[in-house]
Predict the 3D structure of the following.
Amino acid sequence: MDLVSRLPWTLQRKLDATVSEFFYGKRGGKIDFARPHGEEALVPAHSVSWQIFKNPVALFVGGVAAVILELAEPAVRTGVWERSSFREDPLGRLRRTALAALVTVYGPRSVAEPMIARVVRMHGRVSGHTPDGLFYAATDERLLTWVQATATFGFGEAYSRYVRPLTVQAFDSLYSEGILASQFYGALDAPRSAAAQQALFDSMRGRLEPSPIVFEFLRIMRDTPAFPAPLRWMQRLLVRAAVDTLPGWVRECLGLSALHGLRPGERSLVQLAGAAADRFCLPEGPPAQSCLRLGLPASYLYT
């Protein structure tokens, strides 16, 4: 049965334009996910990853959750907060990070691999000391593994909670599908299964720590106009959903109380939005365009 929801043409155009502006800004410079024809991505089209990353609700919620986890690690926090453009240009940084994730999953390898190489070169220029005097480098395999693991956890957990529950086998597939890209990024010990992910998280107990920067990040994500004005209320709702996505012991460690998470009844609202987003195919979006590149229908991931 065809489960794709059809939108009125004018609304379809507006949504496509909104998505395009979010990823590329007003100046354009679009990546052509539909070319070269037939060229594979780092992850196959039938993968769990392609299903998850097509959903904008899971991407936003999972991305925010991942950054919270990154900011809980002192060395990663210092590098992100002091050596990146996040504080000065949060929306631009959010766009670039989201686009990089989509290129990594959907982009043709001739585009994805050079992009990852550029990111790795940028990491090579980032090093310093934490406020406690600990030396860090963005090329540190341990830190890269944490960043890659938190991203996979965030996206997968957000999809499972707010779109469609994933089985343990699906989570295992998600982690294994990301290994090739993780190795390109330098995270050579990234978890290959849900059990390995859990073991990594358990090993971080005692190494994560609270920081006012976590609360400043949440404020930025609530207040920076990433969504169109009529949907700004949804942006704040999804930030709270991201907090709820974190493991309970992490929320407790960071001092994130119930006030920072979803209010009673709001989880159902996020799930409704997540389920709806999983059925609306945006023909100009990276997932649909990547399907066309491989000779598949634009609606392949939505049926």
User: Anything to note?
Assistant: The two ends are 7 Å apart (CA to CA). The chain has a mean pLDDT of 90. The longest strand covers residues 127-129. Residues 141-162 form the longest helix (22 residues).
